[in-house]
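Service request form, structural biology core

Requester: graduate student, group of Dr. S.
Request type: structure prediction, single chain
Budget code: on file
Notes: please return the result as structure tokens.

Sequence provided:
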Amino acid sequence: MSQVLRIGLISDTHGLLRSEVYAAFDGVDEILHAGDVGDEAILTELEVIAPVHAVYGNVDGLEIRAEAPETLELERLNHKIAVIHGHQWGSPKVSNLIEAYPGFSVIVYGHTHRQLIERAGEALVINPGSAGHRRFDNPVSTAILTLEAGKRPGARLIDL
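Core staff response, request fulfilled:
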């Protein structure tokens, strides 16, 4: 039986960790935060659920930037994963991300506060949306990434 990893994806908490995140991420193996954390206590709280890896976003202060890099490149079950906030592109387009991270199985980003799961060639591009304060008319959400060696990655959005 092959191993399956469930990874919680979250972005744009902006200092607010909603209680619904605990249920949404129940049983995940790890959590990836795509920036605009807002308060380092958010990362500490997420660690209660599972190990956390985070990048900083454009509104994160020095304390987050001291803990989190601007970009993360990870490998899980032979899948290369890139995690960025996305402010580097203004309002990132899937094509920009694919071009910047060729050969990656999964690209996770935030910044736009808009949910997205889009397959582009062999890559799965995911924006879990904003999990913090509601902005515009966008839903408040997270996502779950599912990885299995030798299979295409899958993801689903979770409205909070």
